[in-house]
Amino acid sequence: MGQILSQIKNGESAVVRAILESSLKVKLMEMGLVEGKKLEILYRAPFGDPIAVDIDGYVLSLRRDEAQLIEVEVQNSATS
Q: What whole-number distance in Å separates Cα of residue 80 and Cα of residue 25?
């Protein structure tokens, strides 16, 4: 079942399933957020914005409104 990246908890891993249509779609894809890419939520600022995400060994910082455009599938520990 898909969720939105901004809803994922710290420490959880997920796989990108889609990026919603937006003027930011191409920018997000250029930053490595493409379908099938595995990522992990590292931490978020005290009020939830920004969110630090590990993608292929580099840390990407996303604003909450950017993270709300990314549909992901959470990977539980049994499948990761």
A: 27
For residue 71, give the nearest of 1, 23, 5, 24 by alpha carbon.
5
Helices (H) and strands (E) in the chain, counts: 2, 6
Residues in the chain: 80
Whole-structure pTM value: 0.84
Q: How far is Cα 48 from Cα 61, in angstroms, rounded to an integer?
A: 12
Residue linked to tokens 């993608």: 55
Read off the pLDDT of residues 4-63 as tens digits, 9 standing for 90 and up: 999 999 999 999 999 999 999 999 999 989 999 999 999 998 887 899 999 989 999 999
Considering only CA atoms, which of 51, 65, 59 is closest in space to residue 22? 65
